[in-house]
Amino acid sequence: MPRLTPSTAGKTARRAARTLAALKSVPVAPGAAVSAVAAAAAAEVATAEAVAPPPPPTSRYTTPPPPPPSTPAKPFKLQPIQPPPPPFEPRATFEVSTQIPRSYFLGHHTAALSRMRQVLSNVGLIIECRDFRVPVSSWNPLLEQSLAAGDNKRARIIVYTKRDLAPESFRDRGRNASSSSSSSSSSSSSSSSSSSPPRLHKQAAGEVIRYLKTFHSSTAHTSHADSILFLGTGQTHSQSLRPLLDAIKSIARKADSLTGLRAMVVGMPNAGKSTLLNRLRARGMNLGKVAKTGAQPGVTRKLGTPVRIIPGENDTDDSSYMGMGEGVFVVDTPGVFVPYVSNPEAMLKLCLVGCVKDGLVSSTTIADYLLYHLNLAGSFEYVERFGMPGPTNDVHVFLRAAARRTGKLKKNNKESLEGAADWVVQEWRKGALGRLLLDEVTPDSLVAALEAAKIPSLSMNQARKKEKEARKVRNENKRLGLGGGDGSLPTEAVRDAIFKSS
Length: 502
Ligand SMILES: Nc1nc2c(ncn2[C@@H]2O[C@H](COP(=O)(O)OP(=O)(O)OP(=O)(O)O)[C@@H](O)[C@H]2O)c(=O)[nH]1
Ligand SMILES: [Mg+2]
Hints:
Blueprint (H helix, E strand, L loop, with lengths): L5 H20 L8 H18 L55 H13 L5 E7 L9 H7 L7 E7 L8 H9 L4 H6 L16 H13 L9 E4 L10 H15 L5 E7 L5 H13 L21 E4 L17 E5 L11 H10 L9 H14 L4 H5 L9 H12 L10 H13 L13 H12 L5 H20 L12 H8 L3
Parallel strand pairs: 1-2, 1-4, 2-3, 4-6
Antiparallel strand pairs: 5-6
The protein binds guanosine-5'-triphosphate (GTP) and magnesium ion.
Magnesium ion (MG) binds next to helix 9.
């Protein structure tokens, strides 16, 4: 076949097409040689079409025509590399309005306090309950001073309750690992998974316990106690009930009274006083619940009748009960709040743990404060639980997600933020949304609380006036460049006396 050039290809194609058309128009017998001619012509058309259409003549001086629209060239674009999202930054501080209520000192608190003072002469032991999650904020100097009256020979035991709702210490973690029945504790400890971002603020529970023990063991101040115990419900923490009973027995033996020992269980509202009384009675006497308990403050309204928690020496053959007379009796008391909480953040803490009636401070503020602490501690269980893409500092985002997940919706299908806030706080109080220590416990914070406790308890108005005056002095000192402008107390000597030797 002759070599086809673009110009001859067109001619050849047209000629072949004509031949083919002529052949098609002539009737032929099947199998005739004509078909071979036709095939050859068809092949010639195909070859020519493959080469045609010929490219238009190009010249160096003419602009080449644009490419046909059927084959648009894709412009090559550099895709920018997305930087990874910045790591989550929790809020470092929480802005508390100074306008929030700072008192929950009710009529029955005053009445209970004066009744306690009346019966004090018969009481040989004070068992003071404090919530372990707020060991400093749940300190009630008014109660302490009122009941330390007289020659101050009365024995004192401090029980830090709700230990199971605070983070585990390493020792507990080891215990739980070997215990098969610690489902609740293991689920709540998941907040400390290694995938969590580094904690900015997470004091180890073990360190808090060490500081508190050293502090209360010191006889250099009025907050000294004969025993300090950390109690909680659940398998791990209820084991401390036995050491508490032993400590009480030892005090009873020392008292060596024929009538036995009378003890009074005191503390802030909802600290777990009645629960403790029931548990002591169950363990010491193997008897059922006598005191009413409940998740809100103010369940116990009056001083109870004495309840026996340890049998008398004549009721048992056990020689360890010798010298305890008729045994040990405990009186339950109503929770007593402080007349005025000078630090507004401490008030939020007390609201969060349930020491103050819900509703006194807006539930959204309390939920926001909880969110702030969860984030600070790197306790992000809420993210997965509420189906969120990641942690947040925005309480509305947090509450909307919680409302959607729990069906807390209004009639118009909008999320109920108040409903979600109430639910979230209740859930956290049960230990189901992460465990937290809300107070930072250090030698300095303990000694500062001790110094603050020396100031006599004031009424709300007196305290406000005093606060104003102190602020004035601080500002004046600052202006003159004098020390103590931050309001810190000269605590170094006291701190060294308590903590240096340990
Ligand atoms: N998880 C846990 N819950 C506790 C503990 N102690 C008490 N509670 C709960 O805390 C709530 C308050 O307990 P109560 O014994 O009624 O407290 P209270 O100090 O007598 O309270 P008021 O009589 O109102 O002052 C109840 O729901 C108890 O079940 C504890 O150690 N761990
Ligand atoms: Mg009670």
